[in-house]
Amino acid sequence: MDKIQIEEKVVDLLKTVYDPEIPVNVYDLGLIYRIEVSDDLKQLEVDMTMTAPSCPMADFILEDVRQKLESIEGIDSVSVNLVFEPEWDKDMMSEEAKLELGML
Predict the structure, then answer these.
(1) CB 3.0 to 4.6 Å from 103: which of 41, 63, 96, 98, for a disulfide?
(2) Per CATH, the architecture of 3-85 is what?
(3) DSSP classification of residue 90
(4) Residue pLDDT, tens place only, 12-38
């Protein structure tokens, strides 16, 4: 796999991770800020946030993301960083997510 294929696989997997309190995946919610694959295609780093800093499901969601990304063949190291800059807001959601949540 090349870098683009790995990034596409990452997005596909992120779309299977849900906050149990919201019926939309973390990618379409706009919680993923950065996906970076190393030049040797062995390391993956993801910056993500939560809808609120006090999210009670944060540990569960982070672990779900980490486990799914570690399943990508050829990736030796996955780092999932929880960040709160910039602060998440509903404008970061995809159109599909806004539609699903009745915001359009």
Answers:
(1) 98
(2) 2-Layer Sandwich (3.30)
(3) G
(4) 999 999 988 888 999 999 999 999 999
Rg (CA), the chain: 14
Residue 46, judged by CB atoms within 10 A of its CB (0-12, 13-18, 19+), counts as buried
Round to whole Å and give the CA distance between 84 and 30. 13
Cβ count near 72 (within 10 Å): 18
Q: What percent of the chain has pLDDT over 90?
A: 90
What is the domain partition of the chain in residue ranges?
3-85
Q: How far apart are CA 97 and CA 22, in angstroms?
A: 10
